[in-house]
Structure of Multidrug export protein MepA:
Amino acid sequence: MSVKKKFFQYLVPSVSAMWFFSIYTMVDGMFVGRGVGDQALAAVNLAMPFVNTVFAIALLIAVGASTWITYYMGQGNTEKGNHLFSVTVFIVAGIGILITSLSLYFLDPLVTFLGATEETYGYVKDYLGIVISFSTFFMVAYTLEVLVKADGFPSLSITYVTLAAFINIVFDYLLVIRLGMGIKGAAYATGLAQFLSCIAFLIHFIRQKGSLKFIKPVFLWSDIKGILRVGFPESLTELSIGFTTFAFNFVIIRWIGPHGIAAFGVLMYLNNLVMMTMIGINQGMQPLVSYFNGKNDQESIREITMLSFKTVLVFSLLFFFISQQLNEYVVRLFISPEHETSYQLSVSALKWFGFGFLVTGLNVFISGLMTALKQSQKASTISFLRGYVLVVVVLLLIPGVLGSHAIWIAPVIYELMTLIIAGTMLFNMRRVGIL
């Protein structure tokens, strides 16, 4: 099989799986925004940093494990791959149980910390309390979705994730609209979909259909450290979605108010889809790059890199087009025009916010490529700059200098600043022959 064909064999399921993961939360937002109201939609947005954090922790371990598993598979060391697979699943499940227990115990302080206002506090608590209860299934399901691709079954990942997304939509309609359970119904719909997805992936591995199988785990610190080191940059990228949401919420509440939070909620649903698409491209690329890196096949790595780069450019232009030409249609999915203030603000903000989509994918791609090549320090630097340091600096400075509505152009500013640094790193890697 040619490298190009193999790349698309991994790319399509990876991107599709990320889209369906995004659909889980987008569908909740659609049903909550249209079925309950714009303040309930704002509440779901306030809860998103927690969801992103849980997802980022799973990503930290799953991507690190997948990179090492495919690397050892490329060397023909299946025993080591099974060892890392078993250790990974047990660690993720344990962390999930711990997070669920602590978060439920400290639920009220958590809701306050996330920025819930008097109008949204009850909504946030209802939604978050239910989602937290399903966190372990969410984390294990995502981890197994990544590892099933490392096991050579990329099509299986999209099959199960698509099924879970369909279940989520059906339950959203039944619980939110038909039974009138409101925001609680949306939370239960997401949780049940993740639970069923988790069970489906577990059945695949228990049946031992592929190379990876469960064995008695032996927890070696050297293995765990290697997984965390490689997975850290990708985790930073995912966690940055939650951090960015939190930072924007903080600034928007101060400069614009509750209607700004509802508008930003719409923006973040599309932004999450952009980020998940770019992460999906990385996940289609990374197992192959790691595999060929294990074989020391530089020519194949370069071919995959160029294919990934072109794919990122295509999707970046697509999302930019949507933000400029289809912005009203996107906003109507979440907010009725009857909520005039939130609706008009969302339409206007999405146009400015969309300029960041032209650059975001390039930064995520460069960071992901460096992760696959085990250049973890460089990858972490890129993720930390674009998702944390520069976000805070730009958001704190720009409203006071250019006015409150300039908040919406912040992404293109901090993404461009990051791209200059990331591009320099990439050029230096090529110059010394790493790529």
Q: What stands out?
A: Residues 3-431 form one domain. The chain has a mean pLDDT of 84. The chain is about 85% helix and 0% strand. Residues 302 and 435 are 7 Å apart (CA to CA).
